[in-house]
Amino acid sequence: MKGKHIVVGITGSIAAYKTCTLVRLFVKAGAEVQVVMTPSAKEFVTPLTLATLSRHAVVSEFFDRRDGSWHSHVELGTWADVMLVAPASASTLGKMAHGIADNMLLTTYLSMKAPVFVAPAMDLDMYAHPATQENLRLLQRRGVGIIESGEGELASALVGKGRMEEPEQIFRHMADFFRHTAESKAGSGPHRGKLLITAGPTHEYIDPVRFIGNCSTGKMGFALAEAAAEAGFEVELVSGPTALSVRHPGIHRTDVVSAEEMFEAARQVFPTCRAAIFCAAVADFTPETTATNKIKREATGEWQIKLRPTKDIARELGAARQAGQIMAGFALETDDEMLHAEDKLARKHLDFIVLNSLRDEGAGFGHDTNKVVIIGRDGTRLPFPLKSKQEVARDIIRYLCKLMDL
Ligand code: C5P
Description:
alpha/beta, Rossmann fold, binds cytidine-5'-monophosphate
């Protein structure tokens, strides 16, 4: 971080007080920080505090009130190595998404040449609102990095998602970002080749508004993608519909909806990959036909949906695998866990399978934790205690690297 130029944009949110700590962390790590505040941010923290912490005058107005000189947002756009908007309010996110340039922070954003990150902060209903979510996705599609809000107590005393990530975590995100860009520029860091990861559920549409889905959130698969990218893999992440975002620049994400689309996307990249981890909860059945119009209750009466099996992606790709390609799958079981997992390991020609049981508290769908056993084709049985999905992901990637002699 030493010598890096960081533009920190602050908007009007209670979480602005946390940005004081963040700016201090950046400066302590040797970065040069230029703070840009929206007018309402100044209601929450004073420019004096931030100017002192950042050791630079804070920019907020288009013109300097004392001498009338013009603050050039264009200059900041070329000076910066990165721009971080933290906290990013719903209003600023909306304006960023739609190019509304009514304050210095937004003009700076619109003329920014460097990568941009946002750390949203707002009340849970505002965060969950489709307008905010769509703005976030729109910004993400344009390459803005989203530092996801955490769950917890909010300024309104309500508890939910919308709380700005803690300064230490945001600092870590930015430190990771600088490290990865430095590594990719220098061509340094480990290069472990391509790794395919499937993640999330699939949705099999019955008519334009209904689908057959499952409870997978994609958390395990996304944690694997991050851990693998951290370990130096170039990750091809094929994801079903999830609300998650990726952080690491070494992850290339392809979004799909149905099992068929997931198969096609995985099939395309698999030949170039050294290994694959099939973590997605792929639908086993799909409607034989998808109605073009919404099926009406009155007109239909009793309704039966004819289903046909989908392709087993792991199995099909396993059959086409080249020598040396390593393949791993997941088994989520409710009974006779070990037996079913071993059967899948053999049937899908996998090198190892990660077993998690729905009977274990804190394991499986939606949780932030998981409890797994790695079962290897060579007879390995590696049980792990309950851990965060990030830690589980690192255990799995470590095991994969060992199998690949890396
Ligand atoms: O047979 P089951 O669905 O329980 O197997 C789970 C494993 O197989 C997971 O690794 C999953 O990603 C993979 N799978 C797949 N394609 C399917 C079904 C499962 O790749 N159609």
